[in-house]
Amino acid sequence: MQILDTNPELYFHLQQQKLIELIRAGKINEALEFAQEELAPRGEENQAFLEEIEKTVALLVFEDVKNCPYGELLDVSQRLKTASEVNAAILTSQSHEKDPKLPSLLKMLIWTQNQLNEKAAYPRINNLSTAALEDPAI
């Protein structure tokens, strides 16, 4: 996915969320393997990622993970935070790729009408909100 290619932080947070979900499901061996293979290389590249990995893996040490220092990672709010980050990235990518065309078209219409005013009589749009054509005054 193009969004993940250009946003390594988002990709990391999605991977971190996957690790959290494995821990939540009690899949300890799978969680450790995933952390080693997928997250550890990212931690070597980025100190902030390493700190987040350490916090997440620390959940494996505590018997009562809900009351451990990083128990908030298992809260629904963590899922919502990750989901919000994904949504924001999608919306940002769409607005950059697809600028709204209407403002540009309206500017072009006004410019064209101004150019034509000097050269010809034509049906003109004076009210942009209704787009009603008005016959030229001859």
Automatic annotation (TrEMBL):
<dbReference type="Pfam" id="PF10607">
    <property type="entry name" value="CTLH"/>
</dbReference>
<protein>
    <recommendedName>
        <fullName>CTLH domain-containing protein</fullName>
    </recommendedName>
</protein>
<dbReference type="InterPro" id="IPR006595">
    <property type="entry name" value="CTLH_C"/>
</dbReference>
<dbReference type="InterPro" id="IPR050618">
    <property type="entry name" value="Ubq-SigPath_Reg"/>
</dbReference>
<feature type="domain" description="CTLH">
    <location>
        <begin position="2"/>
        <end position="30"/>
    </location>
</feature>
<dbReference type="InterPro" id="IPR024964">
    <property type="entry name" value="CTLH/CRA"/>
</dbReference>
<dbReference type="InterPro" id="IPR013144">
    <property type="entry name" value="CRA_dom"/>
</dbReference>
